[in-house]
Amino acid sequence: MVNLPKGTKDVLPKDSYKWQYLEKTARKVAGIFGALEIRTPTFEHTEVFLRGVGNTTDIVNKEMYTFLDKGERSITLKPEGTAGVARAFVENGLSNLPLPAKLYYITPCFRYERPQAGRLREFHQFGIEFIGSKDAGIDAEVILLAKSFFDELGIKNLTLYINSIGCKECRKNYQAALREYLKANYDSLCDLCKERYHTNPMRILDCKNPECKKITAGAPKILDYLCDDCKDHFEKVKSLLSLANVEYQIDAGIVRGLDYYTKTVFEFVSNNIGAQGTVCGGGRYDDLLEQFGGNNMPGIGFAVGLERLLLLMENAGVLIPNSNAIDLYIANIGEKEYEKAFVIAKDLRDKGYAVEIDHMGRGIKSQFKFADKIKAKYVGVIGEDELSRGVIKLKNMASGEEKDVLTQNIEEEIR
User: 32 FRET partner, CA 20 to 30 A, in 15, 69, 179, 210?
Assistant: First the structure.
Protein backbone atom coordinates (compact mmCIF):
# COMPACT_ATOMS: atom_id res chain seq x y z
CA MET A 1 0.00 0.00 0.00
CA VAL A 2 1.26 3.49 -0.87
CA ASN A 3 0.73 5.98 1.96
CA LEU A 4 0.23 9.74 1.71
CA PRO A 5 3.34 11.90 2.27
CA LYS A 6 4.22 12.98 5.80
CA GLY A 7 2.67 16.29 6.74
CA THR A 8 -0.28 15.99 4.36
CA LYS A 9 -3.85 14.96 5.06
CA ASP A 10 -6.79 13.55 3.11
CA VAL A 11 -10.07 15.42 3.53
CA LEU A 12 -12.61 12.60 3.55
CA PRO A 13 -16.26 12.94 2.45
CA LYS A 14 -17.44 12.84 6.09
CA ASP A 15 -15.43 16.03 6.79
CA SER A 16 -15.54 17.90 3.50
CA TYR A 17 -18.66 19.83 4.53
CA LYS A 18 -16.58 21.54 7.24
CA TRP A 19 -14.18 22.88 4.64
CA GLN A 20 -17.04 23.95 2.40
CA TYR A 21 -18.57 25.86 5.31
CA LEU A 22 -15.31 27.69 6.11
CA GLU A 23 -14.77 28.58 2.47
CA LYS A 24 -18.38 29.71 1.99
CA THR A 25 -18.16 31.88 5.11
CA ALA A 26 -14.82 33.35 4.01
CA ARG A 27 -16.26 34.28 0.61
CA LYS A 28 -19.37 35.77 2.23
CA VAL A 29 -17.45 37.98 4.67
CA ALA A 30 -14.89 39.02 2.05
CA GLY A 31 -17.77 40.01 -0.25
CA ILE A 32 -19.42 42.10 2.46
CA PHE A 33 -16.21 44.16 2.63
CA GLY A 34 -16.07 44.48 -1.16
CA ALA A 35 -13.23 42.03 -1.81
CA LEU A 36 -12.93 40.05 -5.07
CA GLU A 37 -11.22 36.68 -5.46
CA ILE A 38 -7.76 36.33 -6.98
CA ARG A 39 -6.18 32.95 -7.82
CA THR A 40 -2.44 32.66 -8.31
CA PRO A 41 -0.41 29.60 -9.34
CA THR A 42 0.49 26.88 -6.85
CA PHE A 43 4.14 27.40 -7.78
CA GLU A 44 6.14 30.48 -8.70
CA HIS A 45 9.69 31.31 -9.73
CA THR A 46 11.73 31.08 -6.53
CA GLU A 47 12.72 34.73 -6.93
CA VAL A 48 9.14 35.75 -6.05
CA PHE A 49 9.59 34.52 -2.50
CA LEU A 50 13.21 35.60 -2.16
CA ARG A 51 12.11 39.14 -3.01
CA GLY A 52 8.84 39.09 -1.14
CA VAL A 53 9.21 36.90 1.94
CA GLY A 54 12.89 37.72 2.47
CA ASN A 55 16.02 35.58 2.55
CA THR A 56 16.51 36.08 6.30
CA THR A 57 13.24 34.35 7.21
CA ASP A 58 12.80 30.76 8.41
CA ILE A 59 10.45 30.14 5.48
CA VAL A 60 13.09 30.90 2.86
CA ASN A 61 16.04 29.47 4.79
CA LYS A 62 14.50 26.20 5.97
CA GLU A 63 10.93 25.56 4.85
CA MET A 64 10.43 26.12 1.11
CA TYR A 65 9.82 23.30 -1.36
CA THR A 66 12.21 24.41 -4.11
CA PHE A 67 13.29 22.40 -7.14
CA LEU A 68 14.63 22.77 -10.68
CA ASP A 69 12.10 22.11 -13.44
CA LYS A 70 13.00 20.47 -16.77
CA GLY A 71 14.16 23.82 -18.08
CA GLU A 72 16.61 24.17 -15.15
CA ARG A 73 14.52 27.01 -13.70
CA SER A 74 14.23 27.30 -9.92
CA ILE A 75 10.60 26.78 -8.94
CA THR A 76 9.02 26.94 -5.47
CA LEU A 77 5.65 25.72 -4.21
CA LYS A 78 4.00 28.75 -2.63
CA PRO A 79 4.74 28.91 1.14
CA GLU A 80 2.30 31.83 1.62
CA GLY A 81 -0.09 33.89 -0.45
CA THR A 82 0.93 37.56 -0.35
CA ALA A 83 4.08 37.46 -2.49
CA GLY A 84 2.25 35.75 -5.37
CA VAL A 85 -0.59 38.28 -5.17
CA ALA A 86 1.93 41.15 -5.26
CA ARG A 87 3.61 39.64 -8.32
CA ALA A 88 0.23 39.15 -10.05
CA PHE A 89 -0.88 42.68 -9.13
CA VAL A 90 2.16 44.23 -10.80
CA GLU A 91 2.35 41.86 -13.78
CA ASN A 92 -1.33 42.26 -14.70
CA GLY A 93 -1.50 46.01 -14.19
CA LEU A 94 -4.08 45.79 -11.41
CA SER A 95 -3.04 49.25 -10.21
CA ASN A 96 -5.51 50.46 -12.88
CA LEU A 97 -8.37 49.02 -10.82
CA PRO A 98 -10.37 51.41 -8.61
CA LEU A 99 -8.28 51.76 -5.47
CA PRO A 100 -7.97 50.39 -2.93
CA ALA A 101 -8.01 47.05 -4.74
CA LYS A 102 -9.63 44.59 -2.34
CA LEU A 103 -8.61 40.98 -2.99
CA TYR A 104 -9.02 37.64 -1.26
CA TYR A 105 -7.81 34.10 -1.88
CA ILE A 106 -8.29 30.56 -0.61
CA THR A 107 -5.22 28.56 -1.52
CA PRO A 108 -3.01 25.59 -0.64
CA CYS A 109 0.46 26.46 0.71
CA PHE A 110 3.53 24.32 1.34
CA ARG A 111 6.23 24.47 4.01
CA TYR A 112 8.72 21.80 4.97
CA GLU A 113 8.47 21.83 8.76
CA ARG A 114 7.77 19.40 11.58
CA PRO A 115 4.11 18.36 11.36
CA GLN A 116 2.04 18.93 14.49
CA ALA A 117 -1.55 19.61 15.48
CA GLY A 118 -2.95 22.31 13.23
CA ARG A 119 0.30 22.63 11.25
CA LEU A 120 0.97 20.53 8.16
CA ARG A 121 3.41 20.61 5.25
CA GLU A 122 0.53 21.16 2.88
CA PHE A 123 -1.99 23.52 4.42
CA HIS A 124 -4.62 26.00 3.29
CA GLN A 125 -5.01 29.72 3.83
CA PHE A 126 -7.81 32.23 3.55
CA GLY A 127 -6.09 35.52 2.86
CA ILE A 128 -7.00 39.17 2.35
CA GLU A 129 -4.93 41.80 0.53
CA PHE A 130 -6.14 45.43 0.35
CA ILE A 131 -3.76 47.37 -1.93
CA GLY A 132 -3.50 51.07 -2.75
CA SER A 133 -4.27 53.01 0.44
CA LYS A 134 -1.76 54.28 2.98
CA ASP A 135 -4.50 55.47 5.31
CA ALA A 136 -4.67 53.92 8.78
CA GLY A 137 -8.39 53.39 8.28
CA ILE A 138 -7.74 50.56 5.83
CA ASP A 139 -5.62 48.85 8.52
CA ALA A 140 -8.52 48.99 10.95
CA GLU A 141 -10.92 47.75 8.24
CA VAL A 142 -8.77 44.71 7.47
CA ILE A 143 -8.62 43.85 11.18
CA LEU A 144 -12.42 44.26 11.35
CA LEU A 145 -12.78 41.88 8.40
CA ALA A 146 -10.78 39.22 10.21
CA LYS A 147 -12.86 39.72 13.36
CA SER A 148 -16.10 39.55 11.34
CA PHE A 149 -14.95 36.23 9.87
CA PHE A 150 -14.38 34.75 13.33
CA ASP A 151 -17.67 36.20 14.62
CA GLU A 152 -19.57 34.71 11.68
CA LEU A 153 -18.07 31.29 12.49
CA GLY A 154 -19.09 31.62 16.13
CA ILE A 155 -15.52 31.62 17.45
CA LYS A 156 -15.11 33.40 20.77
CA ASN A 157 -12.31 34.09 23.24
CA LEU A 158 -9.77 35.27 20.69
CA THR A 159 -7.34 37.98 21.74
CA LEU A 160 -6.28 40.62 19.22
CA TYR A 161 -2.67 41.78 19.60
CA ILE A 162 -1.40 44.76 17.62
CA ASN A 163 1.94 46.50 17.19
CA SER A 164 3.74 48.86 14.84
CA ILE A 165 7.16 47.96 13.49
CA GLY A 166 7.52 51.32 11.76
CA CYS A 167 9.01 52.21 8.39
CA LYS A 168 12.54 51.68 7.06
CA GLU A 169 13.87 54.74 8.87
CA CYS A 170 12.31 53.77 12.21
CA ARG A 171 13.72 50.27 11.97
CA LYS A 172 17.20 51.48 11.04
CA ASN A 173 17.45 53.33 14.36
CA TYR A 174 15.72 50.56 16.29
CA GLN A 175 17.89 47.79 14.90
CA ALA A 176 21.01 49.72 15.89
CA ALA A 177 19.66 50.02 19.46
CA LEU A 178 18.64 46.35 19.49
CA ARG A 179 22.08 45.18 18.34
CA GLU A 180 23.67 47.30 21.03
CA TYR A 181 21.39 45.74 23.66
CA LEU A 182 22.03 42.18 22.44
CA LYS A 183 25.80 42.59 22.09
CA ALA A 184 26.52 41.65 25.71
CA ASN A 185 24.58 38.36 25.36
CA TYR A 186 25.58 37.51 21.80
CA ASP A 187 27.39 34.31 22.81
CA SER A 188 24.27 33.02 24.60
CA LEU A 189 22.02 33.38 21.55
CA CYS A 190 21.09 30.27 19.56
CA ASP A 191 23.03 29.72 16.32
CA LEU A 192 20.16 30.98 14.17
CA CYS A 193 19.79 34.17 16.20
CA LYS A 194 23.54 34.80 15.92
CA GLU A 195 22.97 34.94 12.16
CA ARG A 196 19.90 37.12 12.64
CA TYR A 197 21.96 39.52 14.77
CA HIS A 198 23.85 40.53 11.62
CA THR A 199 21.07 40.22 9.02
CA ASN A 200 17.77 41.12 10.75
CA PRO A 201 17.99 41.44 14.55
CA MET A 202 14.24 42.06 14.91
CA ARG A 203 13.70 38.41 14.00
CA ILE A 204 15.41 37.49 17.28
CA LEU A 205 12.36 38.86 19.11
CA ASP A 206 10.31 36.12 17.42
CA CYS A 207 12.62 33.25 18.47
CA LYS A 208 10.99 30.49 20.54
CA ASN A 209 14.28 29.33 22.11
CA PRO A 210 13.88 29.77 25.92
CA GLU A 211 17.35 31.31 26.33
CA CYS A 212 16.75 33.80 23.51
CA LYS A 213 13.34 34.69 24.97
CA LYS A 214 14.99 35.36 28.33
CA ILE A 215 17.61 37.60 26.69
CA THR A 216 15.05 39.63 24.72
CA ALA A 217 12.65 40.08 27.64
CA GLY A 218 14.21 43.43 28.51
CA ALA A 219 15.01 44.53 24.96
CA PRO A 220 14.17 48.04 23.72
CA LYS A 221 10.65 48.41 22.29
CA ILE A 222 10.12 49.38 18.66
CA LEU A 223 7.26 51.69 19.72
CA ASP A 224 9.82 53.95 21.40
CA TYR A 225 11.63 54.42 18.08
CA LEU A 226 8.73 55.27 15.77
CA CYS A 227 8.99 58.40 13.66
CA ASP A 228 6.16 60.95 13.96
CA ASP A 229 4.39 59.64 10.84
CA CYS A 230 4.43 56.02 12.01
CA LYS A 231 3.41 57.05 15.51
CA ASP A 232 0.42 59.04 14.20
CA HIS A 233 -0.55 56.13 11.93
CA PHE A 234 -0.58 53.68 14.83
CA GLU A 235 -2.54 56.07 17.04
CA LYS A 236 -5.24 56.35 14.35
CA VAL A 237 -5.45 52.55 13.99
CA LYS A 238 -5.96 52.23 17.75
CA SER A 239 -8.51 55.05 17.78
CA LEU A 240 -10.60 53.50 14.99
CA LEU A 241 -10.54 50.05 16.60
CA SER A 242 -11.77 51.64 19.83
CA LEU A 243 -14.53 53.47 17.93
CA ALA A 244 -15.61 50.11 16.50
CA ASN A 245 -15.63 48.58 20.02
CA VAL A 246 -12.87 46.13 19.08
CA GLU A 247 -10.81 45.12 22.08
CA TYR A 248 -7.08 44.78 21.55
CA GLN A 249 -3.82 44.51 23.43
CA ILE A 250 -0.54 46.11 22.39
CA ASP A 251 2.30 43.60 22.11
CA ALA A 252 5.60 45.24 21.20
CA GLY A 253 7.08 41.78 20.66
CA ILE A 254 5.04 41.08 17.50
CA VAL A 255 7.30 41.38 14.47
CA ARG A 256 5.69 38.67 12.26
CA GLY A 257 7.82 36.14 10.42
CA LEU A 258 8.08 37.81 7.01
CA ASP A 259 10.41 40.60 5.92
CA TYR A 260 7.88 42.59 3.90
CA TYR A 261 5.91 43.96 6.87
CA THR A 262 5.91 47.67 7.79
CA LYS A 263 3.99 49.72 10.33
CA THR A 264 0.87 47.88 11.59
CA VAL A 265 1.19 44.18 12.43
CA PHE A 266 -1.41 42.10 14.24
CA GLU A 267 -2.37 38.63 15.39
CA PHE A 268 -5.53 36.92 16.63
CA VAL A 269 -4.52 34.35 19.26
CA SER A 270 -6.43 31.53 20.96
CA ASN A 271 -5.48 29.53 24.05
CA ASN A 272 -7.57 26.55 22.87
CA ILE A 273 -5.02 24.98 20.50
CA GLY A 274 -1.87 24.69 22.57
CA ALA A 275 1.44 26.40 21.92
CA GLN A 276 0.64 27.28 18.30
CA GLY A 277 -2.11 29.68 19.32
CA THR A 278 -1.98 32.21 16.47
CA VAL A 279 -4.93 31.62 14.14
CA CYS A 280 -4.58 34.78 12.07
CA GLY A 281 -1.61 37.03 11.37
CA GLY A 282 -1.15 40.01 9.15
CA GLY A 283 0.07 43.52 8.66
CA ARG A 284 0.98 46.35 6.33
CA TYR A 285 3.56 46.01 3.52
CA ASP A 286 4.15 49.42 1.98
CA ASP A 287 7.33 48.53 0.04
CA LEU A 288 6.51 45.06 -1.31
CA LEU A 289 5.06 45.89 -4.73
CA GLU A 290 8.03 48.07 -5.56
CA GLN A 291 10.25 45.00 -5.21
CA PHE A 292 8.35 43.41 -8.13
CA GLY A 293 8.86 46.42 -10.39
CA GLY A 294 5.58 48.12 -9.57
CA ASN A 295 4.80 51.59 -8.30
CA ASN A 296 5.45 52.32 -4.65
CA MET A 297 1.94 51.25 -3.68
CA PRO A 298 1.04 50.39 -0.07
CA GLY A 299 -0.92 47.33 1.00
CA ILE A 300 -2.15 45.43 4.03
CA GLY A 301 -3.52 41.94 4.54
CA PHE A 302 -3.76 38.83 6.67
CA ALA A 303 -3.88 35.06 6.35
CA VAL A 304 -5.82 32.46 8.35
CA GLY A 305 -4.71 28.83 8.39
CA LEU A 306 -7.84 26.76 7.79
CA GLU A 307 -6.50 23.53 9.35
CA ARG A 308 -5.65 25.41 12.53
CA LEU A 309 -9.03 27.13 12.46
CA LEU A 310 -10.85 23.79 12.22
CA LEU A 311 -8.82 22.48 15.17
CA LEU A 312 -9.76 25.56 17.18
CA MET A 313 -13.46 25.16 16.36
CA GLU A 314 -13.37 21.48 17.32
CA ASN A 315 -11.61 22.19 20.64
CA ALA A 316 -14.01 25.05 21.42
CA GLY A 317 -17.10 22.95 20.62
CA VAL A 318 -18.22 25.17 17.75
CA LEU A 319 -20.69 23.19 15.65
CA ILE A 320 -20.38 23.33 11.87
CA PRO A 321 -23.69 22.89 10.02
CA ASN A 322 -23.76 20.11 7.44
CA SER A 323 -25.48 21.41 4.32
CA ASN A 324 -24.91 18.16 2.41
CA ALA A 325 -27.93 16.35 3.84
CA ILE A 326 -30.10 14.30 1.48
CA ASP A 327 -33.64 15.66 1.13
CA LEU A 328 -35.25 12.39 0.05
CA TYR A 329 -34.28 8.74 -0.22
CA ILE A 330 -36.64 6.66 -2.36
CA ALA A 331 -36.77 3.00 -1.34
CA ASN A 332 -38.22 0.61 -3.88
CA ILE A 333 -38.81 -3.06 -4.66
CA GLY A 334 -39.11 -4.40 -8.20
CA GLU A 335 -38.10 -3.22 -11.66
CA LYS A 336 -41.18 -1.08 -12.37
CA GLU A 337 -40.96 0.50 -8.92
CA TYR A 338 -37.24 1.25 -9.49
CA GLU A 339 -38.05 2.95 -12.81
CA LYS A 340 -40.67 5.12 -11.12
CA ALA A 341 -38.20 6.04 -8.35
CA PHE A 342 -35.60 6.86 -11.01
CA VAL A 343 -37.95 9.28 -12.79
CA ILE A 344 -39.10 10.96 -9.55
CA ALA A 345 -35.47 11.41 -8.48
CA LYS A 346 -34.59 12.97 -11.83
CA ASP A 347 -37.50 15.44 -11.67
CA LEU A 348 -36.74 16.51 -8.09
CA ARG A 349 -32.99 16.86 -8.78
CA ASP A 350 -33.85 19.14 -11.71
CA LYS A 351 -35.62 21.36 -9.16
CA GLY A 352 -32.56 21.45 -6.87
CA TYR A 353 -33.37 18.73 -4.32
CA ALA A 354 -30.80 16.17 -3.16
CA VAL A 355 -32.33 12.75 -3.86
CA GLU A 356 -30.95 9.20 -3.62
CA ILE A 357 -32.33 5.84 -4.76
CA ASP A 358 -31.08 2.30 -4.32
CA HIS A 359 -28.54 1.00 -6.83
CA MET A 360 -27.33 -1.97 -4.77
CA GLY A 361 -30.35 -4.32 -4.82
CA ARG A 362 -30.93 -3.95 -1.08
CA GLY A 363 -34.07 -5.08 0.69
CA ILE A 364 -36.44 -2.50 2.17
CA LYS A 365 -35.04 -2.84 5.70
CA SER A 366 -31.48 -2.36 4.43
CA GLN A 367 -32.56 0.61 2.34
CA PHE A 368 -33.98 2.27 5.47
CA LYS A 369 -30.72 1.64 7.30
CA PHE A 370 -28.80 3.18 4.44
CA ALA A 371 -31.13 6.21 4.39
CA ASP A 372 -30.48 6.67 8.10
CA LYS A 373 -26.71 6.50 7.59
CA ILE A 374 -26.77 9.22 4.95
CA LYS A 375 -29.08 11.27 7.19
CA ALA A 376 -31.91 11.59 4.68
CA LYS A 377 -34.60 14.00 5.87
CA TYR A 378 -37.39 11.94 4.25
CA VAL A 379 -37.68 8.35 3.06
CA GLY A 380 -40.24 7.46 0.44
CA VAL A 381 -41.27 3.88 -0.31
CA ILE A 382 -42.62 2.72 -3.66
CA GLY A 383 -43.94 -0.83 -3.67
CA GLU A 384 -46.42 -2.58 -5.94
CA ASP A 385 -49.41 -1.10 -4.09
CA GLU A 386 -48.01 2.46 -4.07
CA LEU A 387 -47.17 2.20 -7.77
CA SER A 388 -50.71 1.12 -8.66
CA ARG A 389 -52.22 4.03 -6.66
CA GLY A 390 -49.76 6.69 -7.95
CA VAL A 391 -48.50 7.49 -4.46
CA ILE A 392 -45.34 7.26 -2.39
CA LYS A 393 -45.33 6.33 1.29
CA LEU A 394 -43.40 9.23 2.79
CA LYS A 395 -41.73 9.16 6.22
CA ASN A 396 -40.37 12.21 8.01
CA MET A 397 -37.21 10.80 9.62
CA ALA A 398 -37.12 13.48 12.31
CA SER A 399 -40.71 13.17 13.53
CA GLY A 400 -41.42 9.58 12.43
CA GLU A 401 -44.67 10.71 10.76
CA GLU A 402 -45.75 8.59 7.76
CA LYS A 403 -48.37 9.28 5.10
CA ASP A 404 -49.24 8.50 1.51
CA VAL A 405 -48.48 11.36 -0.87
CA LEU A 406 -49.43 11.64 -4.53
CA THR A 407 -46.24 11.55 -6.59
CA GLN A 408 -46.99 14.94 -8.12
CA ASN A 409 -47.17 16.45 -4.59
CA ILE A 410 -43.83 15.15 -3.25
CA GLU A 411 -42.04 18.48 -3.69
CA GLU A 412 -44.72 20.28 -1.69
CA GLU A 413 -44.23 17.86 1.20
CA ILE A 414 -40.43 17.89 1.36
CA ARG A 415 -39.95 21.59 0.60
Answer: 15
- Integer CA distances (angstroms), 14 to 19, 89, 120, 319, 323, in order: 11, 37, 20, 14, 12
**How would you write 103-170 as a 3-class SS string?**
EEEEEEEECCCCCECCECCEEEEEEEEEECCCCHHHHHHHHHHHHHHHHHHCCCCCEEEEEECCCHHH
Indicate the pTM of the whole model. Answer: 0.89
CA–CA gap between residue 145 and residue 264 (Å, rounded): 15
pLDDT digits (tens, 9 = 90+) for 226-283: 999 999 999 999 999 999 999 999 998 887 666 778 999 999 998 776 556 889 999 9
